[in-house]
Specification:
The complex is a heterodimer of chains A (115) and B (114). Chain A is an all-beta fold and 115 residues long. In chain A, the strands form two sheets. In chain A, strands 2, 4, 5, 6, 9, 10 and 11 form a seven-stranded mixed β-sheet that branches. In chain A, strand 7 and strand 8 form a beta hairpin. Chain A is globular and about 40 Å long. Chain A starts with a strand and ends with a strand. The termini of chain B are far apart. Chain B has 114 residues and is an all-beta fold. The chains are: A mainly beta (115), B mainly beta (114). The interface between A and B is medium-sized, with 25 and 30 residues.
């Protein structure tokens, strides 16, 4: 079956612009989480969504937002881009929010470069 | 809060050598523990997991045992191959603020030379 699909794979944006990233979870998965990966900070939790509701948000400014649609697909948006937003953004899906019994499957990520 | 500490890399080993990557954690609750692997240009792949104390996770020759008394989850493999070269992340999942977010270590880069 198809895995977690993230689009686009690569993106170059200018400071001050905004960007929208997309994540399509594995069919049947209803929980989607987003993570930011940078060389300095490592992997940091951004958001978790389940049944179109945001269950939690990590320690990121309000410029970072997201949503989940009724088909479980999710988008995240970053407004007023800064150079420090350059990162690999990873999406993970699970059947339901899970402490480990089902596990999370990650996509290949979107590489965002802000210039 | 939750945190994961894993040994700094990079780690360079010869093929067929024994691998250990240390991982310790701090958690407010009773977490599940994971090892993820990341190959160049790719996302994270779940390598193995353990959801309760004394559980041993294993996959592809890798093993790790959930040690509650030492709050550790060290990754081991008896004989590494060149294809094992990747970055390895230790992580925990614990319900906090209403979600099971993953908390990751900084990652350990492993290079295996023929």
């Amino acid at each position: 079956k198809a895995g977690v699909t993230q689009t686009p794979r690569y993106l170059i944006k200018t400071r001050g612009q905004q960007v929208t990233l997309s994540c399509s979870p594995i069919s049947g998965h209803r929980s989607v989480s987003w993570y930011q990966q940078t060389p300095g900070q490592g992997l940091q939790f951004l958001f978790e969504y389940f049944s179109e509701t945001q269950r939690n948000k990590g320690n990121f400014p309000g410029r970072f937002s997201g949503r989940q649609f009724s088909n479980s697909r999710s988008e995240m948006n970053v407004s007023t881009l800064e150079l420090g937003d350059s990162a690999l953004y990873l999406c993970a899906s699970s059947l339901v929010p899970d402490r480990g019994n089902y596990g999370y499957t990650f996509g290949s990520g979107t590489r965002l470069t802000v210039v | 809060g939750n945190s994961v500490t894993q040994m700094e890399g990079p780690v360079t080993l010869s093929e067929e050598a024994f691998l250990t990557i240390n991982c310790t954690y701090t958690a407010t609750g009773y977490p599940s523990l994971f090892w993820y692997v990341q190959y160049p240009g790719e996302g994270l792949q779940l390598l193995l997991k353990a959801t309760k104390a004394d559980d041993k996770g294993s996959n592809k020759g890798f093993e790790a045992t959930y040690r509650k008394e030492t709050t550790s989850f060290h990754l081991e493999k008896g004989s590494v191959q060149v294809s094992d070269s990747a970055v390895y992340f230790c992580a925990l999942s614990d319900e906090g603020a209403g979600s099971y977010q993953l908390t990751f270590g900084k990652g350990t880069k492993l290079s295996v030379i023929p």
